[in-house]
Design goal:
heterodimer, A: alpha/beta, Rossmann fold, Alpha-Beta Plaits, 2 domains, 6-stranded mixed sheet, 4-stranded antiparallel sheet, 14 strands, B: mainly alpha, 79% helix, 0% strand
Amino acid sequence: MIRNVKKTFKNKTAVDNFSMELNSGDCVGLIGPNGAGKSTLIKMISDIINPDTGEILLNGKKISSMKKEIGYLPQYPNFFHWMTAKETLMFMGKLSGLQRSELTSSIPNILKKVGLSGEEDSKVGTFSGGMKQRLGIAQTLLHKPSLIIMDEPVSALDPIGRREVLNLIQEIKKETTILLSTHILGDAQEICERFIVIKNGLKIEDTSITELLQRNSDNKLSIEITERDQKWIGIIKELPYVKDVEVIGNKVKVKVENLETNKNLLLGHALKHDVDIVKFEVGNDTLEEIFLKLVVEK
Amino acid sequence: MRSFIVLMNKEFIQMVRDFKIVWLPLVFILLGITQPVMTYYLPTILEALGSGQGITIDPSMTAQQGGEILAGTLGAQFDQLGIMIIAISLMGIIQTDKANGMLAFILTRPVAVRSYVGGKIASNYFFTGFSIAIGYFASYLYVNFLFSNVPVPDMLTALLFYLVWVLFIVSFTTMISTLINSPGLIALISIAFLIGCRVIVGLSSMIDIVNPASMSKHAMEVLITGSVNPNAIGNLAVTFLCVALAIFVTNYWISNKKFSNE
């Protein structure tokens, strides 16, 4: 739970009066454009920097006294390049207060889970970005925390690495609460049920994905046609059930009165006029479009 | 306490992996034997190189007492090149962790800042002190071989005094490494300040009392005269106070998260 948190750096307010609450088992995506204050917020939650005002509580206790319950994955997990994967986990695990015997039995399992078994004795310095990220995730899982915080877990990875890490997060979100920040919406859409949109340090949206999509669905049909049928667009503008037409290149977005009944009418109309249809779909705005609207307009 | 030991172990493993465990003692052994060997062979070298005309070699030079030569090792070798080497080898002690984010990362774990700082200083002091002691013993062996014998109790007392000065060197460099972000600047400030301290020793008895570098002077005095200066106890207390202050500043700075200024 975060209450009225504010942080200012040299007259620049990074996070302003931000409040939010996480329930156990949630998977929350913190999204926002670059410089919105995501990392600052994440760093305050993981107790790397102190907020100027406000407080951050976990299960009703100050976050600084609850570090054992938190797993943190930095944006660029660096580790010590001279340590092997196993030593890194041993080191971080011991710092989290685990016993050596516990660790020797749990480390092989965790490495297997993140797909790094066979690499336990390789130096971290030789790891690729994706491998480091997975090792970072392994490190957050070691002490079985109740909250896992990840700062841009996939932003710096190539498509393969991203896939690996996303699958892994899918896997672990069944077991704990996850808060992750990202500016890649597709990723957030894939793994999180809930979104918090942040811009200029202010929370501008806190909602679930289905709600967000529903709210922004307003009976739109998306039709893609070829060049020669452009004049058909002029004709449909006159139709009684067509409320609005939006043209983007060869794509036409048609807003209709009632999606159910009107969509076949429009399709029939198009066929009658011998329109060369490339694509015809019931199209809502994608998350990206909604996001842009939210962030740019407000 | 447990994380203190874990962090200290990590430092030792790192020293082994970086081969610091080999080169630092080796450097101090070389420094240590330089003084006696150079002093012993200087007349021979000068004779062989030059014609010897116009150069008068003071016969008392080769007739120096062993204690004086060993004191020379501390004062001329360790306190100059030695300080530079220590400062450079320690300049990244905290700075590297700050720069690559490991400091912040480690502190997201339930680790007390004092365990972190304590682990750093204890391990690095132990190792630096060990290297210096090795170099000092090497020097001692050569002195005994080439010059007169130095009494063992004097030799050990002097070493103890000197190691207190080294403790200050280590904790001061650690403090600077915490406060400043550029490694070059850290080395420069540490070297300038520490050598500065050493140079002003003996200028005024007032400054000497609060100057941690006086420990080095006391060490040399023990070797040369064979007795401990009565001021040494007061100096010792002040030096420990300076060490405590440096550690406190380091601890305060990290605890208040002043290291991350993004």
